[in-house]
Design a protein that fits this description.
The chain has about 325 residues and is of the alpha/beta class. Helix content is about 30%, strand content about 25%. The chain folds into two domains: about 45 residues; about 260 residues, Ribonuclease Z/Hydroxyacylglutathione hydrolase-like (Metallo-beta-lactamase, Chain A, 4-Layer Sandwich).
Length: about 325
């Protein structure tokens, strides 16, 4: 009798364990498929462009929704420029984006200029992919001391550039060059910061038909101060806010010197961590100066445009942050 009770106990205990395991396994499978669906749905949304009405003769400036990272693609007829390349594991594929959304050189798999503002993974992440899919004519970056142990992706980028015989050019502040109808002026860095790579970010101004865009990489207050002190004209119609809207960048003095009509903030989740960007201090500065701004994590990939007549075209969306 006692033996039967023991066997009965073991049997029911096994059944309970089996049931628990089965339920757990089913839940895991459901979670997997749910996450897969959400990821795919979100990925499709990433390819939607928040855009004004544009024509084939407009210069297009796209700020890609690549999370807490930077990637801008500029397109003018047969000219393609890419500034930074987002994270390697961003849901949006920069290569597919260029192939699907641009024409001219992009269709022919040719990029006129590739810019790496500074060697951080959220900026060089997908540049190797671009190099492997497009012929790149010119590559510029800043001078920075990098520990390759922490930046295997950057090491791969350098190896790829070498294999394709693409010269690495380090421009100097004040240098100006033209690509098609586009004028590019290098504003910074004015000197190398050995402690903070962010302050070695290439800061450049893009001009077209009288309109100007300022790209700042992750430049922080020290580089901003140096650029202001250089005495160069920083004014621009649109500014790409530095360091994803971090309070370490976009000081009041810098924003006043630029005096933009609009600002764009490339911000979102980073390695599955919830984004806290843009930080309140930056939003407060923009509101104080009455500078309306877009945030990629709120509206997705943002397209601005400049017409042949010099008209700045800005999309109208409900998520657009109008200054108070």
């Amino acid at each position: 009798m006692k033996k039967n009770k023991i066997l009965n106990f073991i049997f029911h205990r096994s059944i309970n364990k089996f049931s628990t395991f089965t339920i757990f396994a089913v839940l895991v499978v459901i979670a997997f498929f749910w996450l897969s669906f959400v990821d795919k749905s979100h990925s499709r949304k990433k390819y939607e462009i928040t855009s004004p009405n544009v024509t084939n003769t407009d210069l297009l400036i796209d700020f890609l929704d690549v999370g807490k990272a930077d990637c801008a693609v500029i397109h003018d007829k047969d000219i393609v420029i890419i500034i930074d390349g987002g994270l390697k594991n961003s849901e949006l594929s920069v290569v597919e984006y260029i192939k699907e959304n641009l024409i001219g050189n992009a269709k022919n798999r040719f990029v006129n200029l590739m810019v790496l503002t500074h060697p951080h993974a959220d900026h060089y992440g997908q540049l190797v992919d671009v190099l492997e899919n497009f012929a790149v004519n010119k590559f510029i970056t800043s001078k920075s001391r990098v520990e390759m142990f922490d930046h295997k992706g950057y090491e791969k980028l350098l190896e790829t550039l070498k294999a394709k015989n693409i010269k690495i050019e380090i421009p100097k502040p004040g240098q100006v060059f033209n690509i098609g109808r586009i004028k590019i002026e290098i504003l910074g860095p004015t000197k190398e910061d050995e402690k903070n790579i962010n302050n070695n970010s290439i800061v450049l101004k893009l001009s077209f038909k009288g309109k100007k865009f300022l790209f700042t990489g992750d430049a922080e207050r020290n580089e901003e101060k140096d650029i202001i002190n250089s005495g160069r004209d920083l004014s621009a119609d649109v500014i790409k806010i530095g360091h994803h809207g971090s309070k370490t960048s976009s000081t009041l003095s810098f924003l006043k010197a630029v005096n933009p009509k609009y600002a764009v903030i490339s911000a979102g989740n980073h390695y599955n961590k919830i984004s806290i960007y843009p930080q309140k201090e930056v939003a407060d500065r923009l509101n104080l100066l009455k500078i309306p701004y877009f945030v990629t994590k709120e509206v997705g990939t943002i397209r601005l445009a400049i017409s042949e007549k010099g008209e700045l075209k800005v999309p109208e969306v409900t998520e657009f942050r109008k200054a108070a």
